[in-house]
Amino acid sequence: MVMTTYGVLSPPVGDRDHAWGRQDAPVTVVLYGDFECPYSGKAFRAVKRLQGSLPDGFRYVYRHFPIARKHRHAQQAAEASEAAAAQGRFWEYHDLLYHHQNELGERDLVRYAADLRLDVGSFEQDLAEHAHAAKVREDSEGGEASGVNGTPTFFVNGDIFEGFYEYAELFDVITKEIP
Description:
By secondary structure, the protein is α+β, with helices and mostly antiparallel strands. It is built from seven helices and five strands, in the order ββαβαααααββα. The protein has helices at about 40-55, 75-85, 90-100, 105-115, 120-130, 135-145, 165-175; strands spanning about 20, 25-35, 60-65, 155, 160. Helix 2 crosses helix 5. It is globular, with a radius of gyration of 16 Å.
């Protein structure tokens, strides 16, 4: 049984997370996303703009929440991003997946690994063995425990963000949190 505390991030951000930005940034934004979800793609574009506008003002954390019943490639894309992370290239792979949301078949995922000059043999083995499925599942379970039921879902400094995932609204929320 998963206990839900709606609106409070669980588990808190830690070493297992993929984080961009300073660890001591005054604001931490966590996104639960699905690489195949068009709304997560829109949220990704807003975050990229925020990274350019507020490079030192916030830390961005990405967690997986693939909705496989709606997006048939979401689970494998999430696992592929973790296979890239195992080779030190999570963020580059993450960005490629969001830039190519309509091209997430297995051949596409392998092509992106080759484009990033990853060890493709290891990458393909990780995919075939579902080597990173547990990490994806842990992210999803944490999201469920926090009250996530769809993507994208943001948390700002540990609290669920109930607004829209548009740049302007996220910018306002983040800048209000910066001392």
